[in-house]
């Protein structure tokens, strides 16, 4: 990390002497003494520690929580979740840049009324034309703003949209290729945030994210790309003036360094804290912990195109080999074991003791399945894994446990550790031959039933989606097609559950756990409700 202090309001804090500061802070952690606030700290500046490198902030090209959290401050989608209320399930939907909507009985036409008197941070008016231009970027190859990279990343949404019609200055109609009853929740995805049309026209596709221009509660004031972003309050924000004047998002990929920075008052918030950070900081008197518990999944995604993970028996054996309870113990109960593809908090999730036991830790059964597969032992696998990052502060320890579990059933696991952003980039095009998968997690859209389709749809292989392990099952795809078009909620939910059961049998992932994803907040910070989401409301958070 590059720790910082502020000399006067509105100016970033210059770097401190890292070695001395780290030693002093480490001593404070060991002794349990509280550190004083940073010298000359501007009370109007709030510092958020990001758990990895901050990517280029082009929402249509992004993947990963670190970047999307920053995007959420700069841009708005058409529809948002209600983050003002703590709930047991998926947050309710509320208007954002779309104020209301009408859905046709066949779920193939969505008419959206748009918010008036809104401008992008460069002064460009927000209107129906702006919405059309954003969709043209990912739909229309003839458009001057079309971006093939963005189009590939947004295929999870754009594949359902036949065309976008402008109905006057403040209304648009989305005509779908097929019925899709759950489209509105899909529109909350921060990757479908609206970018200024002027910015899309002014910059080359690779440079749009270097000049992020949205309608959000903040605008970018300065950027040291990959390391630090300084956000300035948008006093004209349509959703009300944010309570915080300046937010600095600082990249701190090392979890220990991030904990030290929080203990010494250099960082006010850690939005995806690890179990060790919670243990270090929650009882020190300077930080409070929240457990929003959003829907999410952590897993070993497997390459179903390369031997031996192309063999379903081997994949099931790997699921039986892993001791998920040991992972939960390692993380001091911060995670709960997962045995299938639907996380708690997903619209279609159901508590099913039988399903929860389907991949019980059973090394003997794992050995039998490997023997039945005909794959010679020892089985050799090569997986990619992050060495840190959002939700991965104990990644190396977890992978060590998994290596031991697999060794016990005759599987030799080689792990290649990478920085989180590098891992996402490496696996983005799909696994290459000889790479058997990776350790990763997913939170974006995990509360929606169609999370199944994003992760396992047979037509959503890279570059048209994030089914990076190349899994395909025509029977699953048929269930997903039927569910997507079903207007009756109970029937639709049942279809998604049947698809989830089929995916669980095929085991394209080693289903590991669901993280409670705690937040650590300075006791000087308020305005954050523990709603079940990885996002926060940037209009209400403040440092007192």
What do these coordinates show?
- The structure is a single chain.
- The chain has about 550 residues and is α+β, with helices and mostly antiparallel strands.
- The protein has helices spanning about 20-30, 65-75, 130-140, 150-155, 155-160, 185, 195-200, 255-265, 275-280, 310-320, 325-330, 355, 365-375, 395-405, 420-425, 450-455, 475-485, 490-505; strands at about 45-50, 80, 95, 100-105, 110-115, 160-165, 170-175, 220-225, 230-235, 245-250, 270, 285-290, 295-300, 335, 380-385, 410-420, 435-440, 510-515, 520, 525, 540-544.
Q: Which helices and strands occur, and which strands form pairs?
A:
Blueprint: H1 18-31, E1 45-50, H2 65-74, E2 79-81, E3 93-95, E4 98-103, E5 109-114, H3 128-139, H4 148-153, H5 155-158, E6 161-166, E7 171-176, H6 183-186, H7 197-202, E8 218-224, E9 228-233, E10 246-251, H8 255-263, E11 269-270, H9 275-281, E12 287-290, E13 297-302, H10 312-321, H11 324-330, E14 335-337, H12 353-356, H13 363-373, E15 379-386, H14 395-407, E16 411-418, H15 420-427, E17 437-442, H16 451-456, H17 474-485, H18 489-506, E18 509-515, E19 519-522, E20 525-526, E21 542-543
Parallel strand pairs: 1-10, 1-11, 15-16, 15-17
Antiparallel strand pairs: 2-3, 4-5, 5-7, 6-7, 8-9, 9-10, 11-19, 12-19, 13-17, 13-18, 14-18, 20-21
Helix pairs in contact: 1-8, 10-13, 17-18
